[in-house]
Amino acid sequence: MSDEPQSWAPRDSSGAGASSTGNHPPTASGEQPGQQPGKPGKKARPRRTGWRRAVPTWRMTLGTLLGLVVLLGAGIFAAYRLVDIPAANASATAQSNVYLYSDGSVIARDGDVNREKVKLSQVPPTVQHAVLAAEDRDFYSDDRAVDVKAMLRAGWNTVTGKGKQGGSTITQQYVKNYYLGQERTVLRKAKEAIIAVKLNREETKDQIFEGYLNTSYFGRNAYGIQAAAQAYYGKNVEELTTAEGAYLASLLNAPSAYDVIAHPGNRPAAQRRWNYVLGGMVKERWLTAAERATTRFPTPGEAKPSNGLSGQRGYIVQAVEDYLNRRGILDAKTLASGGYRITTTLDKAKQDAFVKAVADNVTAKTSADRAADRNVRVGGASIVPETGKVVALYGGIDYTKQYVSNATRRDYQVGSVFKPFVLASAVVNDSTTQDGRRITPNTVYDGTNKRTVVGVQGATDYAPANEDDVDYGDITVRIATDKSVNSVYAQMAQDVGPAKVRDTAIALGIPADTPDLTAAPSIALGTANASVLDMAEAYATLADHGRHGRYVLVEKVTKDGAEIELPERTTEQAVSREAADTTTAVLRSVVEGGTGTAAQAVGRPAVGKTGTAEEDRAAWFAGYTPDLASVVAVMGQNPDTGAQTPLYGALGLARVNGGGVPAETWAAYTEAALRSSPAQEFDLRPAPGSDEGDELLIDENADGGTDPSSSPDPDASPDSTSDTTPDSTPDGSAPPTPGTSTGGNTGGSTSGDPTGGADGGAVSVPDGNG
User: Fold this and answer.
1) Is the distance from CB of 500 to CB of 579 less than 8 angstroms?
2) What is any Pfam family matched here (predicted)?
């Protein structure tokens, strides 16, 4: 043991020794408190307390993120290894859709998918460039098969309510079309991206683009660019011009939204999309500005459906497809993939009865020797008021000969079949004449021909003519309805308020976007271009005592045994029962002794209204029994030019009016359709003062008294059963009260100018009473 003195102080085992650096003893390792182990001079972090313990440190956060990245990468790698390029899916070899009557019998099959594959070299370069400009301008220059940014943007737009977005490259769209399906799910999108990446490594850009052009859907049941060229322009793909190629490329975005022939109202949207495609071609230098300047919109030709859709079958399929699309049940692309079994509400017996009624009362009366008979078109629709089910639909003589359905088109004036909506609106709004008399069926109006409509601020510049310029003098609303007097109804619309009349028509079932449904006094004369089916829905609302529900055309849809959910039909009291039943009571006298007496051939209680469009371009009869509402329209259209034509001389008649052929056809159909059903009486609860025997409600300040016995006979019959020229004076003696019903106190339009529409252009006013 060394004798040298120790250089270190002995450990004070009692712990009584004081540290030279503070008031605390050193740790067991000789470190001072607060000093990090192994790091002389550094203090340890204090322990987290309270809420800080719940907050992860930056080390924890970074570690978690790195872990997630590793897991995500591993997942993508595993998915890439596990997901193989599958065989072609059903949409690449689509099945037919089957359309059925309500009893399960087959109406039609929409045939095999229309597809003819072509080589990419057969497609003109300008057409290829048009498709690239529309769908993926960077397809050839970008090696990526998936556009991640576009997918994220599309997902964000969808989540934030800006509509479902695509965000897919051409490679992804080809994968979706050929290998997967059209459903919008995260799983399908992920598989699409993985398969697209793999496919991009195994096939060339040209192979992928060729496959895309051959599998894409262009509408009109045309799959692939060759089928589309034939369907829209009747030529092979090699013959397509730049303009035509740009139009076909536009269809890829939404075929049903850009077909300007099936839906003429689509033209503005189609032209905007077409211009977008051409603009993209110029921007990418695939088309010069000079060539673009000389390019004109190439209107496609009429569709040429297969013979499997001949007769009424094609019209029905067209209406069903439109119904499914508009109601958000199945869009056109999804339905076109095939395999759907669609049960309609159509009753086979009633459908056959409608076809026979038209054949007997219209087609049989045509002659090849009369030029006017070439222009005759017929549309019809029939609805059960209580359920809203469409049980019969007549679109035209043959779908393969006349592509546009006369049952659903919206380009013909409805004429005087609109007048009942004015009366219903008057009752709903408890309207009065300018001198304060409540408007009822017995209210007296001045039926003078070309009588100027008067508003709250005085006379307007609108003076509609009665049919054949007949003066009726003082006449009740009931008689004015029987004889369809224009001067009375134009004034009554002004008294009620044109905007209120429009609102009532919409409530009854006329679509708000109906062309020329303009809030002006002329609305009463039927300037609106509603379809036959629209009018049937509105009249069904009146028949159901004012309860309205949208019409129903499809009862059931299944695919692969699974049933697709359909929207439930709901009803509401669109107008009061008093208003609907008062209108029904007045329309009964139209059939009993007015312009619609030909409808009496139905052989059971029935009501209805006749109508004639401007220049006799269309003649209508709309009517109902308690259990069936139906509308028939005979229209004039040049088969070569598509222009509307007057019906003068058609069917061997000087004029075709609503009370003639349309009413006769309606009666023949309704009698056959209800032949096996017992006749029902109307259960009506009209508004007070509406009965024929009620005293006329004249304001106490009006001159003279009222004498019901001197009112015109509402049951007086015209000289014929059709709405032909009435006597030069109205039947029956006029009430002694003068026609003081000018003007209106409901704040209606003070302008009698029958102009309107979005562009402010003039609206043609029907000049026929019936």
Assistant:
1) no
2) Transpeptidase
User: With contact defined as beta carbons under 8 Å apart, do 404 and 508 qualify?
Assistant: no
| CA–CA distance, 494 with 455 (Å, rounded to integer) | 7
Residue 541 structure tokens: 């609302």
Interatomic CA distance for residues 344 and 631, integer angstroms: 19
Q: CB burial class (10 A; 0-12, 13-18, 19+) of residue 363? A: middle
User: Could you tell me where the beta strands, DSSP code E, fall in 373-453?
Assistant: 376-383, 390-394, 444-446
pTM score, two decimals? 0.67
d(CA 196, CA 502): 53
Interval 20-65: pLDDT, tens: 444 444 444 455 555 555 555 556 666 666 666 666 766 667 766 7
Closest CA to 494 of 195, 186, 741, 194: 741
Q: Which two tokens stand for residue 517?
A: 């449904």
**Residues 327-350: tens digit of each pLDDT:** 999 998 888 878 898 999 999 999
Q: Which two tokens stand for residue 714?
A: 């509402």
Question: CA–CA separation, 139 vs 170, rounded Å?
Answer: 7
Which is it for the CA torsion 609, 610, 614, 619, positive or negative? Answer: positive
User: How many beta carbons lie within 10 A of that of residue 143, not counting itself?
Assistant: 8
Please choose, from the candidates 134, 129, 197, the residue with its C-alpha nearest in 3D space to the C-alpha of residue 166.
134
CA torsion angle 427 433 435 441 (round to 10) = -70
